Amino acid sequence: MSLLRIEQVSHRYGKRRVLSRQAERTVLQDVSLTLEAGTCLGLLGKSGAGKSTLGRILLGLERPKAGRVLFEGRDIYGTHPKDYRQDIQVVFQDSFAAVNPKLTAGQIIAEPLTNFTRLSPEALEQRLITLIEQVGLTGADLAKYPSAFSGGQLQRVCIARAIATHPKLIVLDEAVSSLDMVNKAMILKLLRELKETYDLAYLFITHDVQAVQALSDQFMILEQGQIVGHYPTPQAFDQATDPYVSSIKDAMLATHPRKRTIRK
What we know:
Layout: E1 4-13, E2 25-35, E3 40-44, H1 51-58, E4 66-71, E5 74-75, E6 88-91, H2 105-116, H3 121-134, H4 151-163, E7 169-173, H5 181-198, E8 201-206, H6 209-215, E9 218-223, E10 226-231, H7 234-239, H8 243-250
Parallel strand pairs: 3-8, 3-9, 6-7, 7-8
Antiparallel strand pairs: 1-2, 1-4, 4-5, 9-10
Helix pairs in contact: 2-3, 2-4, 4-5
Protein name: Nickel transporter subunit ATP-binding component of ABC superfamily
Pfam families: ABC_tran (PF00005)
GO molecular function, one term: ATP binding
């Protein structure tokens, strides 16, 4: 049984009104995908393709108009959120917007632990130290507030929060897109290490070809709300020449500025 199955999910915004000029806007149309435990599926697409909407549906934040989201064989919209929330976590693009600025890093990381576990104060403190050290920070950082961290450091705090409950799946919603090249490489390396350590599955939602190639085992392309390409291996994606892959690769900047060209 697959860890995650999305079956013919469709979604739209707006309402059908006879006298209104505002028509419904379809953002997802018959989207299906499968994700196995311990693997990373890279979901690529340009801005407005419907990637983040699919992520919200998967997280149980937005019910689709049609289709099913099955986690370990159970429809998440037919069960109580407590039955899957511990096993599905998320890391968003904007780390500063994803945390409460009035909480310390320790309090931020502890949120899912206090929600889903019954640790003693001593055990909780030790767990927090272990988690923050696993993401490359120190125990002393637990007492700091978000404003004391750089974007890359705070994203590490968010990752520590995401792995706190030993989830089976983490949705990475443009999780490295706002970082500079150095921090991006470091966070991707950290995510690879955590994937192996915890046997995690990732749904990596991004428009960044280089980032998705560094982490993913298989690839899908979402275009105008529909899956238009599925590449089961990194080699298949690297060798793909269809228009959708080519357009995404063409939009990618070269790593070094000297190798970049200006299109007329």
